[in-house]
Amino acid sequence: MQKMLKQVQKMQADMAKAQEELKNKTVEATAGGGVVSVVANGSQEIVSITIKPEAVDPDDVEMLEDLVMAAVNEALRKAQELAAQEMQKLTGGLNIPGLPPGLF
């Protein structure tokens, strides 16, 4: 039992370290052929948004809003995927009894 407890504690420490490292890893998504670019980190925080001048049309603000939303959503999806991949490396698909499958 004590050996199992030590393994769980090591896994928790490894996961905390991985989560900290995810803050420094980024993913990028673009929309509108690259006129809108969004960078998010592995903690699913938006790091930057870049909008090229040609994307700004005062007569069609709705299109720009749609492009930003699409790029943000894609960046967050990629960040979630990155985080899941990193956690999968640590757990190897481990399913712990009493916890929902896929939690780790």
Description:
- This protein has helices at about 1-20, 60-90; strands at about 25-30, 35-40, 45-50.
- By secondary structure, it is an alpha+beta fold.
- The protein has a domain at about 20-90: 2-Layer Sandwich (Ybab, Chain: A), CATH 3.30.1310.
- It has a three-stranded antiparallel beta sheet with strand order 1-2-3.
- Strand 2 (about 35-40) and strand 3 form a beta hairpin.
- Helix 1 runs antiparallel to helix 2 (about 60-90).
- Residues about 100-104 have low confidence and may be disordered.
Summarize the structure.
The chain is α+β, with helices and mostly antiparallel strands. It is built from 2 helices and 3 strands.
Counting copies of identical and different chains, the oligomeric state is single chain
Q: Class by helix and strand content?
A: alpha+beta
Q: DSSP helix count?
A: 2
Q: What general outline do the C-alpha atoms trace?
A: rod-shaped
The string of secondary-structure elements, in order, is HEEEH
CATH class division of the domain at 20-91: Alpha Beta
Please state the second-level CATH architecture of the domain at 20-91.
Answer: 2-Layer Sandwich
| CATH fold field value of the domain at 20-91 | Ybab, Chain: A
CATH superfamily of the domain at 20-91: Nucleoid-associated protein YbaB-like domain
Average pLDDT score:
86
**Biggest beta sheet attributes:** 3 strands, antiparallel
Residue fraction in strands: 15-25%
